[in-house]
Amino acid sequence: MEQLSNINPEAAQYVTDAGIERWARAYSPRKRYNIMSTNIPEAMNNAVKECKELPITGVIDYIRGDLQCWFHDRRIAALKLTTQLTTAADVAIGVKDDEARYMRIYPITFYTFHVKDGGLDGTVDLTTKTCSCKEFDVDQLPCAHALGCIRLRGFSFVDYCSPYYSSAFLVATYSGEIHPLGQPSEWLVLEDIASKIVHPPVGRRGPGRPKKNRTPSFGEEVTQRSCTTCHRVGHNSHTCTYPKSSRPSSGMGSTTGIGEASGSHN
């Protein structure tokens, strides 16, 4: 906020007047996830890129088939977990536990502590699962301050994690089954739906081919992958159409030279 005030005081005042609880997770009265991005729709958009030119029923069935495979694969992976927490939560706990080893803990009561970490410090209450650093409150995973206190009392850190981070919840997430719809003649369609006539969209398509790639966000760096065969950008080795004669040499010499240098044999 100090940096923002130095750059643009009016902008700093604007976000303050809007309410800190609207954009700062530590002050939000509700539990908000820690990522706000368009990664999920972008990933889905890329996954269905091959079927976009199909009729709408074909696109829907393509997406259904992808979801069927994804649910099956993730269900199998979740059932193979040997830890009580998911892999991501287990790794996060491990990183925080390493930080907690270097903190000094001063008990206040049996369940409350003052933890010094050389910087922010923290006041932990294990009964309410809170810490003054707010990380424990918001993420619902023990912060480094809390993990030090949990270790001091000999408690299990799993008991202080939200059940949503458990491997059992992950299995339940992908427990649903997605089945094929079968032939259209077998579908049970309500009469008021079947009687509706769907007209083509109003308006004309613009000139040129429809755009397939998404528009980059403001400030996003766009990297172009190059072909590993001809080293040109815009395609990969599987779709490379350049003749072999026009492809640049790798600089390692011909196979004949390699054979002669290493001692060719039949």
From TrEMBL:
Location of the SWIM-type domain: 111-154
Pfam families per record: SWIM
Chain residue ranges for the region called Disordered: 200-220, 240-266
GO molecular function annotation: zinc ion binding
Signal peptide bounds: none
Classification via PROSITE patterns: ZF_SWIM (PS50966)
InterPro entries to which the protein is assigned, alphabetical: Znf_PMZ, Znf_SWIM
Transmembrane segments: none
Keyword annotations of the record: Metal-binding, Zinc, Zinc-finger
Keyword presence, Calcium: no
Protein name per Swiss-Prot or TrEMBL: SWIM-type domain-containing protein
